[in-house]
Amino acid sequence: MSTGKPYSALGGAFEILNDDCGYEEWSQYLIKKLKSLDAGRTGLDMGCGNGYFTRALNRAGYSVTGMDISEEMLSAAVELSRREGVRAEFLYGDITKLKLNFKPDFIVAVNDCVNYIPQDKLSTSFSKVFKSLKKGGLFIFDISSEQKLRSDVGNNLFADDGEEITCLWFNTLRGDRVDMDITVFTRGADGKYTRADERQTQYIYSESSVISALEEVGFAVETEGHLGGKKDKRINFICRKL
User: Fold this and answer.
1) Long-range Cβ pairs for the range 162-169 (8 Å, 24+)
2) pLDDT tens digits, residue range 66-106?
3) Mean pLDDT on 51-62
4) Cα distance between residue 188 and residue 63, in whole Å
C-alpha cells in the first residue's frame, strides 16, 4: 500500500467530509471576534483547506488570502470560490516557513492547523507569524485539546460512509502525537471506486506550553474555549503583536 502525503487523498473532499463541524457558526464567531478586536481588513487564512473560512471572511467584507500546504486542498478551494462567486487569492505555503510579500492585519489558522506543527518547529512558526504581521496585528487560532487527542481521537477508528465518498480513519496514540492512517474511496462517473491512502500526524500541546511559546516571541495572549465556551475539546488563542 502506497501512502501519500497529508491531504493528498482527503484534500479535494475535505469540506464535504467535515461538514458536521459547524462551519457557519464557527465562521460567524470568527467574524464577530475580528470585528470586536478592531482587527483591520487585510488577512491571511493559514491552513485554509478547501477555503470555507477564506470565502466567509471575504463575503463579510475582509480581504483575505488563503494559504495551505496541500495542493489538493488549494485546487478545491479555488474551484469552490469560483462556483460561489467569491474573489479570493490562494497561495501554496507552510506556516513553518512562512514568508509573505504583504503584511496582513491579522492571520487566522482554523481547525487544528497548529496541531500539525511538530514540537521542534512550534516556536519558529510563531516567530514567523509574528514577523509577518503589522504592529498591533492579531493571530487567532485553535488547537484540539490534550483531552480530545488522547481520549477521543487517539487509538480510535472513525468512518464516514457517503454515497460518493467513503473515508476510514485509523488513529494511533504515540506519546505526544497521534498518527492517523486514512483511506478514502471515491466513486467515479462509471460507478467504480478509486482508493487513496495517506498518513497525517497531529501533535499534542498543552495550553500552557502554547502560551509560553507565543509570549516568548512577543505576543500578548488570551484564551477561551470553542466559540467562546468550554476548553475541554478545543482551545482558541487570541494573540496580539505588541
Assistant:
1) 162/16, 162/17, 163/187, 165/13, 165/16, 165/17, 166/193, 167/10, 167/13, 167/17
2) 999 999 999 999 999 999 999 999 999 999 999 999 999 99
3) 97
4) 36
Residue 16 has pLDDT above 60, yes or no: yes
Q: How many domains does the chain have?
A: 2
Contact (CB, 8 A) for 145 and 152: no
The verdict on 16 and 121 lying in the same domain is: yes
Cβ atoms of 108 and 129 within 8 Å: the answer is: no
Q: How does pLDDT run across 177-206, given as a tens digit for each residue?
A: 999 999 999 888 898 999 999 999 999 999
DSSP single-letter state for residue 73: H
The answer as to whether 196 is a domain residue is: yes
Domain holding 183, by residue range, is: 149-202
State the CATH number of the domain containing residue 173: 2.20.25.110
Q: Please give the radius of gyration of the chain, using alpha carbons only, rounded to the nearest integer.
A: 18
The answer to whether residues 221 and 134 belong to one domain is yes
Query: What is the spatial distance between Cα 165 and Cα 76, in angstroms, rounded to a whole number?
Result: 15
Rounded Cα–Cα distance for residues 15 and 19 (Å) = 6
Distance CA 174, CA 81 (A): 38
User: Grid coordinates in use for 18?
Assistant: 467535515
Contacts within 8 Å (CB) and 24+ apart, 168-177: 173/149, 176/119, 176/203, 176/204, 177/201, 177/202, 177/203, 177/204
Q: What stretch of H or E contains 35?
A: helix 23-36
